[in-house]
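Entry for the shared binder. Reason: the reviewer on the internal report wants the predicted structure included alongside the sequence.
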Amino acid sequence: MAEHAFYLVPSDPFYLPDDERNAEFFAFFKEVSPLPNANGGYDFEKYDDPVLVDSGDAFEAVICPGCCARLEMLGDGEWGEHYDWWQSVMEQPRNSTVKAPCCGTETRVVDFKFDSPGAFARFAVGALEPSDSDYWEDEDRPYGLLKPETLARFEEILGCGVVQIWQVRT
């Protein structure tokens, strides 16, 4: 049976909030997402360089920032044609430039987007199977999104945009 973890990360892959913003962000996250699953708890991560926070087992494709092509990692139950290329990209420094296989655009690693929500980040806060609260949209719960006003409050605390990521773990 799959587990689901919910993460919030800055939309700027190089942004790292100061200690005061970290503490306020984490405190509000625990209010919004109370009582995570007994098998987990809260994740509070800070990294020296951007890391990929993706949708886990639901990760299927990256989107080219040059032409918006969907570069699939899986196809018909097997690794897709872009899987090896993506693995080599992930070995590169995050601010390095790589060539997209679809259109030849030279782009930074951190500028690729994801078909299912994901982002590069130096800061991530998450919880395994967080409980519902009034801060969430009612649609598609338990794996929906935060209400716009809740997301806006997180962005205000952090001082930049925020990306919501549901991660599937099997």
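Summary line for the report: Residues 3-55+116-169 form one domain.
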